[in-house]
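Progress note, sequence design subtask.
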C-alpha cells in the first residue's frame, strides 16, 4: 500500500530527481559543503508564475549547465522537441559569463502550458558585475538575429523559430522556450503575483535545509506530468502520486560518488493525503536486504511501527479519497483479520484476533532476474512468528498493502524471520543456494555503494541499476525512453534508495543516489552455480610408455578399460558412480601405473588388469563431489590428492586418504565448480582456485594469500602471469591488471 506511494514516487524521483542527481553528480561537485541556498535571497522566485509544477533552486547559476544538456538524463524535462534550441543557448550564455568570485542564485521551473506538454522558465539573478545592456549584448553575440518585441509595456526578445524568448524583470534575467510562459511571467510580476504567493510552497521552502540544490514538486500537477512524460501503462497510477502530499521538497548535497537528498512532505490541512497515514508511525530498521540475492534489481518494503494505527489511518485515507474498490477490499480483509473463526488463517493470525495487540510486521516485494525473466517475490516478516506459511497466507497479508504487493505465488520458503513466496522459478533460486550465498546487503556493503539499506524508516525503496534487466517495464513514454536507455547504458549510475518516515512537522524523505567510482567497479558476477560432474571417458598416460589409456563407466555402472583408440580391453562390475575423475599414478614408485578414483566417501585404486590394489578402498572424511585431482608438488611421487566435498569444501590428503597435516581447509561462500590448479614458485606451493564468482590464490595450507574482497576480487577468467619468485599479475574486477605480492598480500597497480 504505502509502497504504491513510494514506487510511484519513483516515477517522480527517478525521472525528475534521479536524472538530475546523476548528471549533476557527474559534471559538478561542490567545493563548499557548507554553502547552501538562502531562500530569502532568491529574487528569481518572484518571476515564477504560481502555476509552477516543479521548481529547482540553485545557489549558483552555473550549476544549471549540468542539467540542461541534450546528453543529460534530464533533457526530456527541459527540451520540448528537437527544434528547441533554448538549452543550447543557455549553455553558451552561461559559459560566456565570467564566474569570478560572485555566484548568483537561479531557478528552473516547469509549467503546463499545453495539455501533454511542459514549458521551461529559467530565471537568473543578474550579478552585480554585469549590466542589463552587457547581458543583452552577450545574448546577441550568441544569437545574432534576435528580435525585439513588447508585451504589456515590457520589452522582450525572441527567436520564435527556435523557441527562444527572454526578458529582464527587475534584477532578474528570464528565459523560456514558450512565448506564452514568458508573457505569463511578465504579467504575474507586474501584478506582484508569483509562486511566492503559494503558502504551501513558501512553508515547504522555509522548512528546507540549505544545500547545493532544492527540488520542489507540486503533487497537484501529477496528472500533467504523467500525460507529458510517463508511459500510458502507468497513467492509472497518477492518483497515487497525487495523493502522497500537496508539496514535496528535497534538498541535495553532493559527494565524490554520491548524491544525497533529504526533504519533507507538506499537506493542505483540508486534504487527506498518504503522508497522514504514516504520521503516527516511527521509523524502524529493515532486514530485508540481508535475505535478498546480490543480483536483486528492485525491492520495496513497508514496516509500520503500529500496525493497528496504520490500518485505522489507511482506512480513513481511502474513505476520504473515495477509493471505493480499495476501500471495500481493505475493509473485507480487515474483517477477516479480526475473525477468530476462520480456520484457514488461524495459524497465521492467532495474535490478531481475540482482542490481542498486533505484532510488528514488515511486508516487502522484490524482483531479480532468473534466465531472461524478471521474477517477483512477496516477503513477510511477522515478529515472533516461527511457523512456516503457505504462499496464499503470505499473499493474503500482503493484500492489505495494495496491488504492488500482489504477485504469482506458487511456493514459499522460510529464511530467518522472513517468509518468501513467489513462482517456483524464484523460490528454486533460494533452494539451490543461488540467492543466499551472497546477500544484497553484503554485496553493497563490501563494495561501499549504498549505506542506506538499513535506515530507520516506515517505507523503503531500493533500485540496483547495475543489476537492471532490459525488461519491457517502461516508466517514460516512448518519445523519451529510447534516448534515456542509451544514456543509462553508458552511465555509471549505480543505486537509488528512497526512505519515507514521519516527524512532528510532516513526512520526511531521504533519497540517495550512488555511482561507481572509477576504480571500484562493482563485480560482474557469474551466477551459474551448477556443478557439472564429468562422465568420462577419463584419459591418463601409462607411466612407462607414455601411451594413452581410458577408464569410464557404462550406464549399468560397469568399469570399462580401453586403449588410446578407446577399444575395450576389459570390463569389471562396480556398484556406485565414480566422482568425475580418474588419475594415473605410480603408487609403488616402480614405474608401473595404477588408476586412482573416488566414489562416495572412498578412494579406489585399480591396477591395469582391473584388480583392486591391496588395502583399498580407503575412506576419507566426507562425501566426495568431484575428485581426486593428483599433484606431484616436488616431482618425487609423494602425491597429494585434492578432493571437492559435497559441502563445498576442499580436502587435501595423500593417496591413502590420510589428511595432510598442513592443510587447514577452505570453504568459500560461493560455489566451487572445479578443483584448483597448482602454482609452484621458489619452492613454495600455491593453489589457484576458480569459483563461480572469482579466482582465489591459496597458500599450501588453504589460506587466501590476500583479502580478495570488493573490487580486489580476481576475475574467474584471469590469467596468472608470474613475474618474480613471489609476484604475479592478475586481472581484477575493475578491469585493470594488478601485481599481487604473494608474501605480503599487497596489490600494486600494474603499469
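Output:
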Amino acid at each position: 500500500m504505502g509502497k504504491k506511494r513510494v514506487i510511484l514516487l519513483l516515477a517522480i524521483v527517478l525521472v525528475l530527481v534521479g536524472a538530475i542527481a546523476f548528471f549533476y553528480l557527474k559534471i559538478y561537485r561542490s567545493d563548499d559543503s557548507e554553502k547552501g541556498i538562502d531562500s530569502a535571497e532568491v529574487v528569481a522566485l518572484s518571476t515564477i508564475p504560481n502555476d509552477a509544477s516543479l521548481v529547482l533552486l540553485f545557489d549558483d547559476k552555473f550549476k544549471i549547465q549540468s542539467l540542461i544538456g541534450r546528453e543529460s538524463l534530464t533533457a526530456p524535462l527541459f527540451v520540448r522537441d528537437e527544434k528547441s534550441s533554448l538549452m543550447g543557448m543557455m549553455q553558451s550564455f552561461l559559459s560566456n559569463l565570467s564566474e569570478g568570485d560572485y555566484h548568483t542564485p537561479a531557478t528552473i521551473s516547469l509549467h503546463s502550458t499545453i495539455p501533454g506538454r511542459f514549458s521551461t522558465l529559467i530565471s537568473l539573478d543578474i550579478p552585480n558585475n554585469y549590466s542589463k545592456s552587457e547581458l543583452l549584448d552577450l545574448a546577441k553575440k550568441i544569437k545574432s538575429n534576435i528580435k525585439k518585441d513588447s508585451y504589456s509595456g515590457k520589452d522582450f526578445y525572441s527567436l520564435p523559430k527556435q523557441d527562444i524568448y527572454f526578458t529582464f524583470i527587475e534584477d532578474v534575467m528570464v528565459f523560456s522556450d514558450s512565448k506564452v510562459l514568458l508573457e505569463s511571467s511578465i504579467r504575474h510580476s507586474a501584478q506582484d503575483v508569483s509562486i511566492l504567493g503559494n503558502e504551501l510552497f513558501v512553508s515547504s521552502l522555509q522548512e528546507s535545509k540549505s544545500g547545493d540544490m532544492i527540488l520542489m514538486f507540486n503533487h497537484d500537477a501529477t496528472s500533467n506530468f504523467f500525460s507529458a512524460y510517463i508511459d500510458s501503462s502507468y497513467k492509472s497510477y497518477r492518483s497515487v502520486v497525487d495523493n502522497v502530499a500537496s508539496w514535496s521538497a528535497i534538498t541535495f548535497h553532493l559527494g565524490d560518488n554520491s548524491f544525497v537528498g533529504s526533504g519533507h512532505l507538506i499537506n493542505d490541512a483540508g486534504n487527506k493525503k498518504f503522508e497522514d497515514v504514516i504520521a503516527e508511525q516511527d521509523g524502524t530498521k529493515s532486514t530485508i536486504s540481508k535475505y535478498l540475492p546480490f543480483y536483486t534489481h528492485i525491492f520495496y518494503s513497508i514496516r509500520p511501527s503500529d500496525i493497528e494505527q496504520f490500518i485505522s489511518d489507511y482506512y480513513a485515507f481511502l474513505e476520504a479519497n473515495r477509493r471505493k474498490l480499495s476501500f471495500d477490499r481493505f475493509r473485507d480483509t480487515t474483517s477477516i483479520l479480526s475473525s477468530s473463526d476462520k480456520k484457514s488463517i488461524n495459524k497465521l493470525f492467532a495474535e490478531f484476533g481475540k482482542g490481542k495487540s498486533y505484532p510488528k510486521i514488515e511486508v516487502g516485494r522484490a524482483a531479480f532476474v532468473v534466465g531472461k525473466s524478471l521474477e517477483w517475490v512477496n516477503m513477510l516478516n511477522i515478529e515472533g512468528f516461527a511457523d512456516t506459511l503457505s504462499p496464499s497466507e503470505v499473499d493474503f497479508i500482503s493484500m492489505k498493502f495494495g496491488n504492488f504487493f500482489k504477485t504469482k505465488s506458487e511456493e514459499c520458503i522460510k529464511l530467518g524471520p522472513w517468509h518468501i513466496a513467489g513462482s517456483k522459478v524464484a523460490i528454486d533460486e533460494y533452494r539451490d543456494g543461488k540467492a543466499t550465498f551472497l546477500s544484497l546487503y553484503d554485496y553493497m556493503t563490501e563494495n561501499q555503494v549504498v549505506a542506506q539499506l538499513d535506515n530507520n524508516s516506515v517505507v523503503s525503496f531500493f533500485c540496483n541499476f547495475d543489476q537492471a534487466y532490459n525488461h519491457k517495464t517502461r516508466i517514460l513514454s516512448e518519445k523519451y525512453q529510447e534516448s534515456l536507455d542509451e544514456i543509462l547504458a553508458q552511465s555509471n549510475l549505480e543505486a537509488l534508495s528512497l526512505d519515507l518516515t514521519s516527524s512532528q512537522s510532516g513526512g520526511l524523505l531521504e533519497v540517495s543516489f550512488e555511482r561507481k567510482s572509477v576504480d571500484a567497479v562493482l563485480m560482474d558476477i557469474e551466477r551459474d552455480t551448477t556443478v557439472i560432474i564429468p562422465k568420462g571417458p577419463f584419459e591418463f598416460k601409462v607411466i612407462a610408455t607414455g601411451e594413452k589409456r581410458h577408464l569410464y563407466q557404462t550406464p549399468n555402472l560397469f568399469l570399462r578399460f580401453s586403449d588410446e583408440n578407446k577399444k575395450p580391453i576389459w570390463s569389471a562390475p562396480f556398484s556406485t558412480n565414480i566422482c568425475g575423475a580418474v588419475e594415473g599414478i605410480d603408487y609403488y614408485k616402480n614405474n608401473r601405473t595404477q588408476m586412482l578414483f573416488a566414489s562416495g566417501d572412498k578412494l579406489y585404486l585399480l591396477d591395469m588388469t582391473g584388480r583392486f590394489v591391496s588395502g583399498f578402498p580407503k575412506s576419507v572424511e566426507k562425501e566426495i563431489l568431484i575428485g581426486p585431482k593428483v599433484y606431484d608438488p616436488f616431482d618425487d611421487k609423494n602425491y597429494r590428492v585434492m578432493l571437492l566435498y559435497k559441502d563445498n569444501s576442499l580436502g587435501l590428503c595423500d593417496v591413502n586418504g590420510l589428511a595432510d597435516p598442513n592443510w587447514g581447509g577452505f570453504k568459500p561462500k560461493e560455489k566451487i565448480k572445479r578443483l584448483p590448479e597448482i602454482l609452484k614458485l621458489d619452492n613454495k606451493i600455491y593453489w589457484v582456485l576458480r569459483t563461480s564468482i572469482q579466482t582465489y590464490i591459496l597458500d599450501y595450507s588453504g589460506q587466501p594469500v590476500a583479502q580478495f574482497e570488493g573490487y580486489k576480487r580476481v576475475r574467474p577468467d584471469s590469467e596468472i602471469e608470474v613475474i618474480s619468485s613471489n609476484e604475479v599479475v592478475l586481472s581484477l574486477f575493475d578491469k585493470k591488471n594488478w601485481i599481487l605480492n604473494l608474501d605480503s598480500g599487497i596489490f600494486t597497480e600494474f603499469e
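The chain has 16 helices and 36 strands. Work on this subtask will continue into the next period as scheduled.
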